[in-house]
Design a protein that fits this description.
Layout (H helix, E strand, L loop, with lengths): L2 H4 L24 H13 L14 H13 L3 H5 L6 E3 L7 E5 L10 E5 L1 H9 L34 H9 L2 E2 L5 E2 L12 H14 L4 H8 L10 E3 L8 E3 L5
Antiparallel strand pairs: 1-2, 2-3, 4-5, 6-7
Length: 245
Protein backbone atom coordinates (compact mmCIF):
# COMPACT_ATOMS: atom_id res chain seq x y z
CA UNK A 1 0.00 0.00 0.00
CA UNK A 2 1.36 3.41 -0.96
CA UNK A 3 2.62 5.62 1.88
CA UNK A 4 0.54 8.40 0.29
CA UNK A 5 -2.57 6.55 1.42
CA UNK A 6 -1.14 5.68 4.81
CA UNK A 7 -0.39 9.33 5.47
CA UNK A 8 -4.06 10.25 5.02
CA UNK A 9 -5.35 8.19 7.93
CA UNK A 10 -5.51 8.34 11.67
CA UNK A 11 -3.67 5.55 13.57
CA UNK A 12 -5.65 2.34 13.28
CA UNK A 13 -7.78 1.56 16.31
CA UNK A 14 -8.80 -2.10 16.22
CA UNK A 15 -12.35 -3.01 17.07
CA UNK A 16 -12.37 -6.59 18.40
CA UNK A 17 -16.02 -6.99 17.50
CA UNK A 18 -15.64 -5.96 13.89
CA UNK A 19 -13.36 -7.40 11.20
CA UNK A 20 -13.05 -6.89 7.49
CA UNK A 21 -15.62 -9.00 5.63
CA UNK A 22 -14.27 -11.89 3.58
CA UNK A 23 -15.30 -11.94 -0.10
CA UNK A 24 -18.42 -14.05 -0.48
CA UNK A 25 -19.09 -14.08 -4.21
CA UNK A 26 -17.58 -13.37 -7.56
CA UNK A 27 -14.62 -14.69 -9.49
CA UNK A 28 -11.01 -13.95 -8.63
CA UNK A 29 -7.71 -13.88 -10.49
CA UNK A 30 -4.32 -14.12 -8.84
CA UNK A 31 -1.44 -11.79 -9.72
CA UNK A 32 0.06 -14.15 -12.27
CA UNK A 33 -3.27 -14.50 -14.08
CA UNK A 34 -3.81 -10.73 -14.09
CA UNK A 35 -0.31 -10.23 -15.53
CA UNK A 36 -1.11 -12.77 -18.27
CA UNK A 37 -4.28 -10.88 -19.18
CA UNK A 38 -2.37 -7.61 -19.52
CA UNK A 39 0.37 -9.24 -21.60
CA UNK A 40 -2.09 -10.94 -23.94
CA UNK A 41 -4.15 -7.77 -24.36
CA UNK A 42 -1.03 -5.82 -25.33
CA UNK A 43 0.29 -8.53 -27.65
CA UNK A 44 -2.96 -9.29 -29.46
CA UNK A 45 -4.41 -5.92 -30.38
CA UNK A 46 -5.41 -7.55 -33.66
CA UNK A 47 -6.95 -10.86 -32.61
CA UNK A 48 -6.81 -13.88 -34.94
CA UNK A 49 -9.95 -14.32 -37.08
CA UNK A 50 -11.58 -11.22 -35.60
CA UNK A 51 -14.61 -9.87 -37.41
CA UNK A 52 -13.67 -6.34 -36.38
CA UNK A 53 -10.58 -5.27 -38.32
CA UNK A 54 -9.63 -2.26 -36.20
CA UNK A 55 -6.98 -2.93 -33.53
CA UNK A 56 -7.65 -2.25 -29.87
CA UNK A 57 -7.11 1.45 -29.17
CA UNK A 58 -4.54 2.90 -26.80
CA UNK A 59 -7.41 4.36 -24.78
CA UNK A 60 -9.03 0.96 -24.28
CA UNK A 61 -5.74 -0.63 -23.24
CA UNK A 62 -5.05 2.25 -20.85
CA UNK A 63 -8.52 1.69 -19.37
CA UNK A 64 -7.75 -2.00 -18.76
CA UNK A 65 -4.49 -1.14 -16.98
CA UNK A 66 -6.30 1.59 -15.00
CA UNK A 67 -8.90 -0.86 -13.70
CA UNK A 68 -6.21 -3.38 -12.76
CA UNK A 69 -3.96 -0.85 -10.99
CA UNK A 70 -6.60 1.33 -9.30
CA UNK A 71 -9.46 -1.17 -8.81
CA UNK A 72 -11.98 1.59 -9.46
CA UNK A 73 -15.46 0.88 -10.79
CA UNK A 74 -15.58 0.91 -14.58
CA UNK A 75 -18.47 3.32 -15.11
CA UNK A 76 -17.08 5.99 -12.78
CA UNK A 77 -13.59 5.60 -14.26
CA UNK A 78 -14.57 5.93 -17.89
CA UNK A 79 -16.62 9.07 -17.15
CA UNK A 80 -13.85 10.76 -15.17
CA UNK A 81 -13.34 14.38 -16.26
CA UNK A 82 -9.76 15.35 -17.07
CA UNK A 83 -10.24 18.53 -15.04
CA UNK A 84 -10.78 16.39 -11.94
CA UNK A 85 -7.26 15.00 -12.12
CA UNK A 86 -5.05 17.54 -10.36
CA UNK A 87 -1.41 17.68 -9.33
CA UNK A 88 -0.50 16.73 -5.77
CA UNK A 89 1.60 19.62 -4.46
CA UNK A 90 2.94 17.42 -1.65
CA UNK A 91 4.26 14.58 -3.85
CA UNK A 92 6.28 15.17 -6.99
CA UNK A 93 4.86 13.38 -10.00
CA UNK A 94 1.72 12.27 -8.16
CA UNK A 95 -1.79 13.42 -8.97
CA UNK A 96 -5.22 13.11 -7.34
CA UNK A 97 -8.32 11.90 -9.16
CA UNK A 98 -11.50 13.33 -7.66
CA UNK A 99 -14.73 11.52 -8.41
CA UNK A 100 -18.01 13.38 -8.01
CA UNK A 101 -20.54 11.90 -5.59
CA UNK A 102 -23.13 11.39 -8.33
CA UNK A 103 -20.68 9.21 -10.25
CA UNK A 104 -19.98 6.88 -7.34
CA UNK A 105 -22.02 3.88 -6.24
CA UNK A 106 -21.54 5.02 -2.63
CA UNK A 107 -22.88 8.50 -3.54
CA UNK A 108 -19.93 10.09 -1.79
CA UNK A 109 -17.00 12.08 -3.11
CA UNK A 110 -13.95 9.91 -3.68
CA UNK A 111 -10.35 11.15 -3.92
CA UNK A 112 -7.72 8.73 -5.21
CA UNK A 113 -3.96 9.47 -5.14
CA UNK A 114 -2.28 8.42 -8.41
CA UNK A 115 1.41 7.45 -8.50
CA UNK A 116 3.45 8.54 -11.54
CA UNK A 117 3.09 5.22 -13.39
CA UNK A 118 -0.68 5.46 -13.20
CA UNK A 119 -0.55 9.11 -14.29
CA UNK A 120 1.20 7.87 -17.44
CA UNK A 121 -1.89 5.78 -18.23
CA UNK A 122 -3.95 8.96 -18.51
CA UNK A 123 -1.42 10.31 -21.00
CA UNK A 124 -1.59 7.05 -22.94
CA UNK A 125 -5.39 7.26 -23.01
CA UNK A 126 -5.08 10.37 -25.22
CA UNK A 127 -2.81 8.82 -27.84
CA UNK A 128 -4.60 8.88 -31.17
CA UNK A 129 -7.17 11.43 -30.02
CA UNK A 130 -7.05 14.42 -32.38
CA UNK A 131 -8.82 16.87 -30.11
CA UNK A 132 -8.51 18.33 -26.63
CA UNK A 133 -11.14 16.22 -24.90
CA UNK A 134 -12.64 17.04 -21.52
CA UNK A 135 -12.60 13.33 -20.59
CA UNK A 136 -9.75 11.37 -19.02
CA UNK A 137 -10.63 8.41 -21.29
CA UNK A 138 -11.89 10.06 -24.49
CA UNK A 139 -13.50 8.18 -27.34
CA UNK A 140 -12.33 8.52 -30.93
CA UNK A 141 -16.00 8.65 -31.85
CA UNK A 142 -17.79 12.00 -31.85
CA UNK A 143 -21.27 10.72 -32.67
CA UNK A 144 -23.55 8.30 -30.90
CA UNK A 145 -24.91 5.38 -32.95
CA UNK A 146 -27.76 6.59 -35.16
CA UNK A 147 -27.10 10.26 -34.45
CA UNK A 148 -25.61 12.98 -36.65
CA UNK A 149 -24.99 15.33 -33.73
CA UNK A 150 -21.33 15.85 -32.86
CA UNK A 151 -20.66 15.32 -29.15
CA UNK A 152 -17.69 15.11 -26.81
CA UNK A 153 -17.77 11.41 -25.82
CA UNK A 154 -15.78 9.21 -23.47
CA UNK A 155 -15.27 5.51 -24.07
CA UNK A 156 -18.18 3.41 -22.93
CA UNK A 157 -18.28 1.64 -19.61
CA UNK A 158 -18.49 -1.68 -21.48
CA UNK A 159 -15.31 -1.08 -23.52
CA UNK A 160 -13.03 -3.17 -21.32
CA UNK A 161 -15.60 -5.96 -21.04
CA UNK A 162 -15.90 -6.09 -24.85
CA UNK A 163 -12.11 -6.27 -25.10
CA UNK A 164 -12.10 -9.26 -22.76
CA UNK A 165 -14.81 -10.91 -24.86
CA UNK A 166 -12.73 -10.44 -28.01
CA UNK A 167 -9.71 -12.01 -26.30
CA UNK A 168 -12.00 -14.91 -25.43
CA UNK A 169 -12.81 -15.30 -29.13
CA UNK A 170 -16.33 -13.93 -28.81
CA UNK A 171 -16.65 -11.05 -31.27
CA UNK A 172 -19.92 -9.12 -31.01
CA UNK A 173 -19.57 -7.38 -34.38
CA UNK A 174 -21.53 -8.75 -37.35
CA UNK A 175 -22.54 -12.39 -37.65
CA UNK A 176 -22.06 -14.34 -34.45
CA UNK A 177 -18.86 -16.32 -34.62
CA UNK A 178 -16.22 -17.56 -32.22
CA UNK A 179 -12.46 -17.86 -32.74
CA UNK A 180 -9.53 -18.97 -30.60
CA UNK A 181 -9.71 -18.21 -26.87
CA UNK A 182 -6.49 -16.30 -26.17
CA UNK A 183 -7.27 -16.38 -22.44
CA UNK A 184 -7.58 -20.15 -22.26
CA UNK A 185 -6.55 -21.40 -18.82
CA UNK A 186 -7.57 -18.16 -17.11
CA UNK A 187 -10.92 -18.29 -15.27
CA UNK A 188 -13.73 -16.35 -16.91
CA UNK A 189 -13.93 -12.89 -15.38
CA UNK A 190 -15.40 -9.43 -15.81
CA UNK A 191 -13.80 -6.03 -15.15
CA UNK A 192 -15.53 -5.96 -11.78
CA UNK A 193 -13.91 -9.30 -10.93
CA UNK A 194 -10.54 -7.57 -11.32
CA UNK A 195 -11.67 -5.16 -8.62
CA UNK A 196 -12.75 -8.07 -6.41
CA UNK A 197 -9.39 -9.71 -7.04
CA UNK A 198 -7.58 -6.74 -5.53
CA UNK A 199 -9.76 -7.03 -2.44
CA UNK A 200 -8.64 -10.64 -2.04
CA UNK A 201 -4.98 -9.81 -2.72
CA UNK A 202 -4.98 -6.98 -0.17
CA UNK A 203 -6.60 -9.26 2.40
CA UNK A 204 -3.94 -11.92 1.80
CA UNK A 205 -1.23 -9.27 2.23
CA UNK A 206 -2.85 -8.21 5.53
CA UNK A 207 -3.30 -4.63 4.36
CA UNK A 208 -5.25 -2.53 6.84
CA UNK A 209 -8.95 -2.87 6.14
CA UNK A 210 -9.66 0.87 6.34
CA UNK A 211 -6.86 1.68 3.89
CA UNK A 212 -8.13 -0.93 1.43
CA UNK A 213 -11.66 0.41 1.79
CA UNK A 214 -10.42 3.91 1.01
CA UNK A 215 -8.96 2.74 -2.29
CA UNK A 216 -12.06 0.75 -3.22
CA UNK A 217 -14.59 3.32 -1.94
CA UNK A 218 -16.36 0.69 0.09
CA UNK A 219 -19.15 2.28 2.07
CA UNK A 220 -19.67 -0.09 4.97
CA UNK A 221 -18.53 -2.79 7.28
CA UNK A 222 -14.81 -2.24 7.88
CA UNK A 223 -12.79 -0.76 10.77
CA UNK A 224 -12.04 2.91 10.21
CA UNK A 225 -14.95 3.29 7.79
CA UNK A 226 -14.10 6.01 5.28
CA UNK A 227 -15.93 9.31 5.23
CA UNK A 228 -15.38 12.48 3.27
CA UNK A 229 -15.15 15.80 5.07
CA UNK A 230 -13.66 19.13 4.17
CA UNK A 231 -11.84 20.02 0.97
CA UNK A 232 -8.26 20.08 -0.20
CA UNK A 233 -6.43 23.16 -1.42
CA UNK A 234 -7.53 22.09 -4.91
CA UNK A 235 -11.17 22.36 -3.93
CA UNK A 236 -11.77 18.60 -3.85
CA UNK A 237 -12.74 16.47 -0.86
CA UNK A 238 -10.15 14.52 1.09
CA UNK A 239 -10.52 11.02 2.53
CA UNK A 240 -10.30 10.73 6.30
CA UNK A 241 -10.89 7.94 8.78
CA UNK A 242 -13.59 7.70 11.39
CA UNK A 243 -12.79 9.70 14.46
CA UNK A 244 -10.83 12.42 12.69
CA UNK A 245 -11.90 16.03 12.68
Amino acid sequence: MSPRFAASYEPFRPNPGKTAPAPTRGRYLDLEQIARVLYIAEKHRDGPDRLQAKPTTETALAALWWIVLTAQRTTASMSLLASRVVGDKDARGWKIAAFAAEDMKSKRYHALPLPPRVVLLLERARIGIDRDSKWAFPSKKVRRPGSEEIEELHIHGTTVNLMIRRLRGKDTVGKKRESVDLLEGIPHFSPHDLRRSLTTILTDLKVRADAASAVLDHSSGTPGEVEFRGRTSHGWPTTVANGSS
